[in-house]
Amino acid sequence: MGKTVLVIGASGDIGSAIATQLGNEGYQLILHYHQNREAVTAIEQGLAPETVLDVLKADLESTEGINTFLTSLVYPVDAIVFASGVAHYGLFQDTPEQVMDAMLSVHVKAPLKIVQNLLPSMIQQKAGKILFISSIWGEIGASYEVMYATVKGAQNSFVKSLAKEVGRSGISVNAISPGYIDTKMNVLDPEEKAQLVSEIPLNRPGTPEDIANAVSFLLQDKSSYIHGEIVRISGGWS
Fold it and tell me: Residue 186: its pLDDT value, please?
C-alpha cells in the first residue's frame, strides 16, 4: 500500500471527496470526523477494505477533544490534510464568545497541536506533507463571515511561516484556497447562487472533486517545488 494520509474532517463534502480520491489512488487513510459517522462509513464502503487504517471520532472544539484525538493516533502519518470547517454567519458585533472559541479551536488550535504532535516523526524521516483547505475569504476577507475569514487567514499565515521553518527538513507545507464550492456548508437560495455564479469567469461553482484533484497533485512528488503557497482554486473568481 501507499503512504498514510490523515484526513481531518473526512465527513464533510470536501473531506469525503478528498478521502475517496486518495483511497482510490492507493493511499492508506486515517479518517477523522466529529458527528457524521454515516459519511465516513460511505467512504469506507467505497474503498478496498485495507485502505482505511483507522477512523477517529473527536470534537476538536475543545482542548479535551484535541488531546483525546492526539492520544488516539497510533499509526505513523506521512501526510496531513486539514479539511474540517465550521462556518458562522452574522455580524461580528453579535458573535458570541462561545462561537469565537469554537472556531479558533477547530481551525487554529487543533491544527497547530496536531502538526506539533506529528512534526518530530516527519523531521526524523526527512519527509512529510502538510496541507490545509483554507478559503478565499482568508485572503480577501468577508463581511458577515468575519470569524471564518479570520481563522482561515490564520491558517494561511501558519502555512507560510511553518514552510520556512521545516522546508530544509524535507517537509512540504501548503494550503488550497477554494472559492465558491457547491457544498452543504454554503447555504444560498437559488437567486443568490445564480448571482454569485454569474461573477465567476468559468460560470459554475466549484465541486469537492475540484479540490480533491488539487490535493492529489500537491501530495505527489511532482509538486515538490510548490512550498509555502496558498493555491487559489476559484474558477477565476476573486
Answer: 75
CA 20/CA 216 separation, integer angstroms: 11
Residue 179 C-beta-side C-alpha neighbours within 13 Å: 18
Q: Using the structure block, give the residue that is written with the C-alpha cell 479540490.
A: 211
Taking every pair of Cα atoms in the chain, the longest distance, rounded to a whole number of angstroms, is 53
Output the pLDDT for position 235: 96
Q: Model's pTM, two decimal places?
A: 0.96
Q: Is 148 a catalytic residue?
A: yes
Please state at what angle helix 110-125 crosses helix 146-166, rounded to 10 degrees. 20
CB 155 within 8 A of CB 131: no
What domains can be seen in the chain, in order of their start residue? 4-233 (3.40.50.720)
Q: Which of 27, 33, 148, 180 is catalytic?
A: 148
Interatomic CA distance for residues 228 and 112, integer angstroms: 16
Residue ranges of alpha helices (H) inside 58-189 are 63-72, 97-104, 110-125, 137-140, 146-166
Tell me which residues of the chain have a pLDDT lower than 50: none
User: pLDDT at position 1, please?
Assistant: 59
> Backbone dihedral region of 188: left (phi > 0), alpha (psi from -120 to 50 degrees) or beta?
beta
Are 206 and 235 spatial neighbours (Cβ–Cβ below 8 Å)? yes
Q: CA–CA separation, 159 vs 28, rounded Å? A: 24
